[in-house]
Design a protein that fits this description.
This protein is an alpha+beta fold. It has helices spanning 10-13, 16-32, 74-84, 117-138, 142-147, 158-174, 180-191, 193-204, 249-258, 266-277, 288-316, 321-324, 328-333; strands at residues 42-46, 50-55, 62-67, 94-96, 101-105, 151-153, 211-213, 222-225, 230-233, 240-242. The strands form 3 sheets. The chain has a 5-stranded antiparallel β-sheet with strand order 1-2-3-5-4, with helices on both faces. α4 runs antiparallel to α9 (249-258) and α4 (117-138) runs parallel beside α10.
């Protein structure tokens, strides 16, 4: 069976023909690198937006990740990351951008499986400093990442992204039974457009250049070497180009929760400020916390689009997830107006 561009989705990925063709290609790529598969393949992850196949080899486990049409940019993005920040990501063994396929070595244990509580918060804080340095290194590569297909969510693009998010969440409301609470929230969000425009303008005036926002930077999306105290970041399918501080919405919310939920507490501020210090030569240090708060608030606009993309992929494939998360984009967008800037929609 020949698997060409455009062959994706849960039905395709679950078919014996796709699995046989993908495994044959994987074996060829491994052999070209002098690696031999030593056992049967496992297919543990099949989602509407991507799937992954794991195989044992004489050089450890390897993974073939197949991306859907909306996340296929991850394949060429890895090429840029491996060149510019090789110590922070997995090194791809092979790739087929036309089919959205990439072969990666196993990265070991994720941070979220190794630590908990305050210990996890401290390790996550160290990973965030590392991620900030990654963002600094990637700033000159923004044009290449955009050319690879990463979505543009830089500050000047965010008001338009907000308007589009309003439209798509209006569509979701109109598609089903009336929901008074969500209708009210949608109206509140729409009424706040001028305020959102002000936040986007403030971020546009920021001295910090745009960089890569992972957009889901939690401890299970980073492999962790406890001896070196370093992470390798993975699962870039939600990534966008944005104000660098937007990437902190998810991890800082988790850090705060792990430390007891008090944003003014010294341990939380120490972790936040260690990340901000990576950028202290670009803007006045006293301005950075407020800029981070604005960037995290605006980041929920990009996350609303990510949810819409995921739910749309599920709906096209008849996945029941689509009904379950029908209002996820609206619920996420509403976090823009929450009093807590670290509310993750």
């Amino acid at each position: 069976m020949t698997i060409g561009p455009g062959a994706f989705g849960t039905a395709v990925w679950s078919s014996p023909g796709w699995q046989a063709a993908a495994l044959a290609w994987l074996d060829e790529r491994l052999a070209a690198a002098g690696i031999t598969r030593t056992g049967a393949a496992e297919h543990p992850h099949v989602r509407a937006w991507a799937t992954a196949v794991r195989v044992p080899t004489d050089h450890g486990d390897y993974w073939l990740k197949a991306c859907g049409q909306d996340t296929a940019f991850e394949v060429p993005l890895y090429r840029v990351l491996a060149e510019l920040v090789p110590g922070d990501v997995l090194a791809p063994l092979a790739a087929d951008p036309a089919r959205g396929w990439i072969v990666l070595p196993d990265g070991g244990r994720v941070l979220g499986d190794q630590l908990a509580g305050a210990d996890l918060a401290r390790a996550l804080g160290a990973a965030l400093v590392q991620y900030g340095r990654l963002q600094r290194a990637l700033m000159p590569g923004v044009p290449r990442m955009l050319a690879a297909g990463v979505t543009d969510m830089r500050p000047p693009a965010m008001l338009d992204a907000f308007d589009r998010a309003l439209a798509l969440t209006r569509r979701d409301l109109d598609a089903g039974e009336p929901d008074r609470d969500r209708e009210r929230r949608h109206a509140q969000i729409a009424a706040a457009r001028d305020e959102v425009a002000g936040w986007c303008a403030a971020l546009s005036r920021s001295a910090l250049p745009a960089s890569l926002d992972h957009n889901d930077l939690h401890p299970r999306n980073m492999f962790w070497d406890p001896r070196a105290g370093r992470a390798r970041f993975f699962d870039w399918g939600d990534a966008v180009i944005a104000h660098p501080f937007a990437a902190m919405l998810v991890p800082l919310a988790m850090v705060r929760e792990l430390l007891g939920g008090v944003p003014a507490a010294a341990p939380f501020r120490a972790i936040r400020d260690a990340y901000l210090q990576v950028f202290a030569d670009l803007a006045p240090t006293e301005d950075l916390p407020a800029t981070l708060e604005t960037a995290c608030r605006v980041a929920n606009i990009a996350r609303a689009h990510t949810w819409d993309r995921a739910v749309g992929a599920a709906a096209r494939q008849g996945d029941p997830m689509a009904a379950r998360f029908r209002f996820a984009a609206l619920d996420t967008l509403s976090a823009v107006l929450d009093a807590d800037y670290l509310t993750v929609g």
